[in-house]
Amino acid sequence: MPVLYLIACGAPPAAELLSHPEAVPGLQADGWTVCVLCSPNGERFLDTAAVSIATGYPVRVEQRLPGEPDVLPSPDAILVAPATFNTLNKWALGISDTLVLGILNENLGAGLPIAATIWAKDELQKHPAFDAHAQLLFESGVRFIQPDEDVQQFPWRQLRLAMAELLPG
């Protein structure tokens, strides 16, 4: 089965990874092997033990030590859900000060399919750096999935459909 890295950053939708039927359960039903990685702030929103049981893999937060084996299989695609203002801006600048940013930077450079949904307050999205950084990532191949207009819920269904397009066969 193809491997999907689901990267969760520090925002409320990260708490829905197991409870929303279109998130981890739906992605698994579609045929993905889902491995969850999260930013240090994202970890606060997760029950990492429950996520590990549901996926069969530990939730990775910290970078591994040199020589330490990787406990996750290599990804075939990456989904950043939710992508925060902080993560988006650091990612666009190539900053790799957390495990997830290192994974995102490395795999963007490798050309791996990456989809993301930004979850940030309107005020943060009006920051002068935001649009330029989102555009840079878009031009580098990141597919951004946004909620339908006037919808306040996280777009798990749209993300699941976008990831299904990447499944082989």
Briefly summarize what is shown.
With 169 residues, this protein is α/β, with parallel strands linked by helices. The chain is built from 8 helices and 5 strands, in the order E-H-E-H-H-E-H-H-E-H-H-E-H. A 5-stranded parallel sheet has the order 2-1-3-4-5, with helices on both faces.
Task: Give the secondary structure arrangement, pairings included.
Blueprint: E1 3-8, H1 24-29, E2 33-38, H2 40-43, H3 48-55, E3 77-83, H4 85-92, H5 99-110, E4 114-118, H6 122-125, H7 128-139, E5 143-144, H8 156-164
Helix pairs in contact: 4-7
Give, in order, the helices and strands.
EHEHHEHHEHHEH
CATH topology: Rossmann fold
- Work out the helicity level: 25-40%
Give the helix tally.
8
Q: What's the main sheet like?
A: 5 strands, parallel
Strand order of the largest sheet: 2-1-3-4-5
Number of strands: 5
Range of strand content: 15-25%
CATH architecture: 3-Layer(aba) Sandwich
Number of domains: 1
Shape: globular
The CATH fourth-level homologous superfamily: Flavin prenyltransferase-like
- Average per-residue pLDDT, rounded, comes to 95
pLDDT < 50 runs, ≥5 residues: none
Strand-pairing-aware structural class: alpha/beta
Just give the CATH class.
Answer: Alpha Beta
Describe this structure in words.
The chain has one domain: Flavin prenyltransferase-like (Rossmann fold). The longest helix has 12 residues, at 99-110. It has 169 residues and is α/β, with parallel strands linked by helices. α4 packs across α7. It is 37% helix and 15% strand. The protein contains 8 helices and 5 strands; from the N terminus they run βαβααβααβααβα. It is globular.
